[in-house]
């Protein structure tokens, strides 16, 4: 079964048979010098041997960070025993190993899918790496008041919703011994060709028994971290990290482990890992068989006792609860009116039995092959006595379903580095949380740092408090205050704010009425500070055939658009968001062509009273500003359509929003080519938010250009446009539309067009354009 001789213990052997046997004269750390410098009482208690092998890195014993001999061999033996390609010893427990797994698999800003009920070391790994966690709901067990594993269906759905995720982390099995269908999850995750990391803190024994859940390495996971010290024979802090396949960089893993682990690893821990591996590899099957048999008897006996319950394989459902490690014994005395916490107290105080942990309903006993028959009998005797002596005192409250996972505003690293402010819990609705709130049962965070606090969460906490259920995590143990992150203190580290770059294009020949050529001068006159901010694109005047009534001023439109397209393309390539202020709407031919040259898949929302979808054949006026959108989709005169070099907009990626003046030719076009349309009347009917929800369903793009024509606003609020149309949006509605679009899409670029000083009244339109520019300056994450 094994390729190597699993009887070897290279680390322990060199320490015992070489270093200690030779009685090396120690002029190295640790300073106790093989025990001679240790405080007497401690030395007498410990005995001499631990100190004889408590050494540091030197050639004779090899080093953990760059192992060449004995440690290298011990790691090879561990990999052989566990079926890994490479194994690493972690003397900072599985906590350190999990941090290393995460840091090797994801970098700042990358998405990692994790169960909502992760161990805190996963949060630490996420904070250290700067990754963006996407939470998956575990299966909640109402009966036993705990959270189990994440079902494969949940992983599948979350990945479908987040196809850009870089890794997935799963727990196998949970603290309570319940495992999900890991093999199926491996298949799902590998369809996306990303690594599956497994927190196998409670599974270093799985590989050695058919009766236990499948181990991560056998299931095909890419990496797993096991607490060798928890379940099998290593000393506390001794864990092993296993890796296989090509989705994790082995070099990076070594580098990260070296970064996280001490340069003075304990050789006692390393030797204990070495020997624990030998023991489990050679004798594991027998030892585990016995411990399962014994645990089954213990469970059975407890279940016979009045008022006590100990769940087992009956909880399995073939999904998130797929298999079970029966050595975990969760005892509930809920029927006697005892909480898990109370039961633990009784076990410790009266019977000298120390459980692993207790929760609201259960006490968890970890049983292993280290137990004796006598210790199991002590538990049974204690449980019988408690059953006889306890008068049933009141009901233990049942727990409510936990609230929806709130919106994450900052990732955990950003939240970690942001200043916190203490505030009353009831006043915290709407603020960003700086703390965790954990609800027990079922032992799951209802709020994590960086998440927006909702009324539902605060009400839930109040309900738990009233019901006497357990809420943990807050610094204020009285649960009256919470540390929040005020917007002003919020640190955004990894989601780069895209810089706006404003271009001013004072062009009017697409509208063929005078006015918009003064738009930028008008802005500068009212807001001189914008002179330092806006880069001017000078219109290019060409000779024109003034008798051409079908395509008026076409040569100037094309030449100006070319200059704008080139500048837009440059800015997008350099990571900017161009904001193009016009000028009549024909300039969008330039801005959108420039964008599409770089971002072929971007969509466009056209917020305008008009559709601008005429061609030279259908246009009643021959003004090109009414033909731009058709030309961008490849329809109309070749002089215009040539401009974006074949990168035509797909009509399915175009949405006309708020139109209220459509020509028959345009209506034909919309129908024929299937352009998305939500008219202004429809917005009024549905309401703005619902209309934007519908827009989101229609426009299935990630990146979006907003082409905003001021004439979409009611002339009462923005009269200064080329072709006013009655009614239209209010200014606040436009700001809301922009806000929601920024939430729903990555906004690549924006046009703000048709500002006409000659028709403006009381500076209403120019003020609104400035308001929009300021708004865009404030958004953009
Ligand atoms: C599920 C889970 N993961 C990780 C850890 C961390 O393991 P260690 O204590 O070895 O650092 C624990 C510890 O309790 C755990 O229960």
Automatic annotation (TrEMBL):
Record pathway: Nitrogen metabolism; urea cycle; L-ornithine and urea from L-arginine: step 1/1
Domain Orn/Lys/Arg decarboxylase C-terminal: 405-473
GO molecular function (one): transaminase activity
Cofactor: pyridoxal 5'-phosphate; Mn(2+)
EC number(s) per entry: 3.5.3.1
Record-annotated Orn/Lys/Arg decarboxylases family 1 pyridoxal-P attachment site domain positions: 9-372
Keywords: Aminotransferase, Arginine metabolism, Decarboxylase, Hydrolase, Lyase, Manganese, Metal-binding, Pyridoxal phosphate, Transferase
SUPFAM superfamilies, sorted: Arginase/deacetylase (SSF52768), Ornithine decarboxylase C-terminal domain (SSF55904), PLP-dependent transferases (SSF53383)
UniProt record similarity statement: Belongs to the arginase family.
Protein name: arginase
Species annotation: Psychrilyobacter piezotolerans
């Amino acid at each position: 079964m094994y390729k190597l001789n699993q009887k070897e213990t290279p680390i322990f052997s060199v320490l015992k048979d070489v270093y200690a046997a030779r009685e090396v004269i120690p002029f190295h750390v640790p300073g106790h010098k093989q025990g001679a410098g240790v405080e007497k009482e401690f030395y007498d208690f410990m005995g001499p041997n631990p100190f004889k092998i408590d050494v540091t890195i030197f050639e004779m014993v090899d080093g953990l960070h760059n192992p060449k001999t004995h440690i290298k061999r011990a790691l090879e033996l561990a990999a052989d025993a566990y079926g890994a390609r490479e194994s690493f010893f972690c003397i900072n427990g599985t906590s350190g190993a999990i941090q290393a797994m995460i840091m090797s698999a994801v970098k700042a800003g990358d998405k990692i899918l994790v169960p909502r009920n992760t161990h805190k070391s996963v949060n630490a790994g996420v904070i250290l790496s700067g990754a963006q966690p996407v939470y998956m709901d575990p299966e909640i067990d109402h009966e036993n008041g705990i959270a189990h594993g994440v079902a494969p269906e949940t992983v599948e759905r979350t990945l479908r919703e987040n196809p850009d995720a870089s890794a997935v982390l799963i727990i196998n099995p949970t603290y309570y011994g319940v495992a999900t269908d890991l093999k199926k999850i491996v298949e799902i995750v590998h369809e996306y060709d990303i690594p599956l990391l497994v927190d196998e803190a409670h599974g270093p024994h799985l590989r050695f028994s058919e009766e236990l859940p499948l181990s991560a390495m056998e299931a095909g996971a890419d990496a797993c971290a096991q607490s060798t010290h928890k379940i099998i024979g290593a000393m506390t802090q001794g864990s092993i990290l296993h890796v296989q396949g090509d989705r994790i960089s082995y070099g990076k893993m070594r580098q990260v482990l070296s970064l996280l682990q001490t340069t003075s690893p304990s050789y006692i821990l390393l030797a204990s890992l070495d020997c624990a591996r030998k023991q489990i590899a050679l004798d594991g099957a027998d030892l585990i068989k016995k411990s399962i048999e014994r645990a089954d008897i213990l469970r059975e006996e407890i279940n016979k006792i009045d008022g006590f319950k100990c769940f087992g394989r009956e909880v399995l459902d073939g999904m998130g609860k797929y298999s079970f490690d029966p050595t975990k014994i969760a005892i509930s005395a809920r029927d006697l009116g005892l909480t898990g916490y109370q039961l633990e107290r009784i076990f410790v105080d009266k019977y000298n039995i120390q459980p692993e942990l207790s929760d609201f309903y259960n006490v968890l006993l970890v049983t292993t092959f280290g137990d004796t028959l006598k210790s199991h009998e002590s538990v049974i005797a204690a449980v019988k006595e408690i059953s006889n002596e306890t008068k049933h005192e009141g009901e233990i409250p049942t727990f409510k379903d936990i609230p929806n996972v709130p919106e994450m505003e900052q990732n955990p690293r950003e939240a970690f580095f942001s200043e916190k402010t203490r505030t009353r819990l009831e006043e915290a609705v709407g603020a960003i949380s700086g703390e965790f709130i954990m609800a027990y049962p079922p032992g799951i965070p209802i709020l994590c740092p960086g998440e927006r606090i909702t009324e539902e969460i605060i009400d839930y906490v109040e309900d738990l408090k009233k019901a006497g259920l357990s809420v943990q995590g807050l610094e204020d143990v009285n649960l009256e205050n919470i540390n929040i992150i005020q917007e002003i203190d919020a640190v955004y580290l990894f989601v780069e704010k895209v810089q706006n770059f404003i271009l001013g294009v004072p062009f009017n020949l697409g509208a063929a009425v005078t006015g918009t050529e003064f738009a930028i001068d008008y802005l500068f006159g009212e807001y001189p500070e914008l002179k330092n901010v806006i880069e001017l694109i000078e219109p290019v005047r060409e000779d024109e055939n003034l008798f051409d009534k079908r395509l008026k001023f076409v040569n100037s439109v094309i030449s100006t658009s070319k200059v704008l397209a080139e500048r837009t393309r440059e800015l997008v390539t350099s990571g900017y968001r161009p904001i193009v202020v016009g000028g009549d709407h024909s300039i969008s031919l330039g801005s959108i062509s420039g964008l599409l040259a770089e971002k072929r898949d971007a969509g466009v929302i056209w917020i305008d009273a008009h559709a601008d979808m005429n061609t030279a054949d259908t246009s009643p006026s021959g003004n090109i500003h009414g033909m731009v959108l058709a030309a961008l989709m490849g329809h109309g005169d070749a002089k215009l359509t040539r401009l974006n070099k074949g990168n035509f907009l797909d009509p399915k990626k175009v949405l006309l929003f708020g139109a209220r003046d459509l020509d028959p030719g345009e209506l034909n076009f919309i129908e024929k080519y299937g352009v998305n349309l939500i008219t202004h009347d429809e917005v009024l009917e549905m309401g703005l938010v619902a209309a934007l929800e519908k827009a989101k369903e229609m426009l299935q793009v990630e990146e979006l250009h907003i082409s905003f024509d001021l004439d979409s606003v009611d002339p009462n609020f923005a009269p200064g446009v080329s072709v006013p149309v009655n009614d239209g949006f209010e200014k606040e509605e436009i700001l809301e539309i922009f806000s929601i679009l920024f939430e729903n899409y990555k906004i690549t670029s924006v046009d703000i067009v048709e500002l006409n000083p000659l028709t403006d009244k009381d500076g209403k339109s120019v003020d609104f354009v400035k308001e929009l520019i300021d708004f865009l300056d404030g958004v953009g994450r």
